[in-house]
């Protein structure tokens, strides 16, 4: 079955790097996603990685994928107060149709 | 391009009533998915519609239903509301063809439903 896990909280100082981790169980996932949710808002797509890739960089964001351990991470360089939000990883279903299974979300708090 | 829009943004209902939520996808997107977000259960997939057909369904009771129109707009309906249906309901659209794999989903701001 599908299951996606994340740690609940992460606190970092402004200017430091943040690393948010995620583990998943569905080895047939095609894409893995990172979404950001600010208070009272919907989900904002940050980035995604195809399952045959190991790494993807997009400006301050770096995604690392370890398929063997089914581990995904999101690194945010030079973290700013505006990065404070809940971050969700999600895996895409490959069984036909369009379905995302989300992790529990990691609340990132950026302190001055 | 305009993003995914959802109406209404906020809704208050009482137990036993029914509710209809609306979602307009990004122009050109043909797939619409619905998710429920609650503090206890997190984000859970409800169903997905493509070309006016329900293509995928999550593990929710039959009180939750939906439909998609020929212009790709979608509605979801919840009948006989329960207190536990209080949640943020998110709609997502994606540009996908009938044979493609999972495609990137773009989310709307959600409808906050409160059941009293």
Walk me through the structure.
The complex is a heterodimer of chains A (112) and B (116). With 112 residues, chain A is mainly β. Helix content of chain A is 0%, strand content 56%. Chain A has no helices and eleven strands. In chain A, strands 2, 4, 5, 9, 10 and 11 form a six-stranded mixed β-sheet that branches. Chain A has a five-stranded antiparallel β-sheet with strand order 1-3-8-7-6, with no helix packed on it. The termini of chain A are far apart. The mean pLDDT of chain A is 90. In chain B, strand 4 and strand 5 form a beta hairpin. Chain B has 116 residues and is an all-beta fold. Chain B contains no helices and eleven strands. In chain B, the strands form two sheets. In chain B, strands 2, 4, 5, 6, 9, 10 and 11 form a seven-stranded mixed β-sheet that branches. In chain B, strands 1-3-8-7 form a four-stranded antiparallel β-sheet, with no helix packed on it.
Number of strands of chain A: 11
Shape of chain B: globular
Q: Biggest interface between protein chains, with counts per chain?
A: A-B, 25 and 27 residues
How much helix is in the residues of chain B? under 10%
The number of helical elements of chain A comes to 0
N-to-C SSE series of chain B?
Answer: EEEEEEEEEEE
Low-confidence stretches of chain A: none
Q: End-to-end span of chain B in angstroms? A: 37 Å
Count every helix of chain B, treating DSSP H or I runs of 4 or more residues as helices: 0
Structural class of chain A: mainly beta
What is the subunit organization of this protein? heterodimer
Overall radius of gyration of chain B: 13 Å
């Amino acid at each position: 079955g599908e299951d996606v896990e994340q740690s609940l909280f992460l606190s970092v100082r402004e200017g430091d790097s943040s690393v948010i981790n995620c583990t998943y169980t569905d080895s047939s996932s095609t894409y893995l996603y990172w979404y950001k949710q600010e208070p009272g808002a919907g989900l904002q797509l940050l980035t995604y990685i195809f399952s045959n890739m190991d790494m993807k960089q997009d400006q301050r964001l770096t995604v690392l994928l370890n398929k063997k351990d089914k581990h995904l991470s999101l690194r945010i360089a030079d973290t700013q107060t505006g990065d404070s939000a809940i971050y969700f990883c999600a895996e895409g279903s490959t069984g036909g149709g369009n379905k995302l299974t989300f992790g529990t979300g990691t609340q990132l708090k950026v302190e001055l | 391009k305009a993003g995914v829009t959802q109406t209404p943004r906020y809704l208050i209902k009482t137990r036993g009533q029914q509710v209809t939520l609306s979602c307009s996808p990004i122009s050109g997107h043909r797939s619409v998915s619905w998710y429920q977000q609650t503090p206890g259960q997190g984000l859970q997939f409800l169903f997905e519609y493509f070309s006016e057909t329900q293509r995928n369904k999550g593990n929710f009771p039959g009180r939750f239903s939906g439909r998609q129109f020929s212009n790709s707009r979608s509605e979801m309906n919840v009948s006989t509301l329960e207190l536990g249906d209080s949640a943020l309901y998110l709609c997502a659209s994606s540009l996908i063809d009938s044979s493609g794999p999972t495609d990137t989903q773009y989310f709307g701001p959600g409808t906050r439903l409160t059941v009293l």
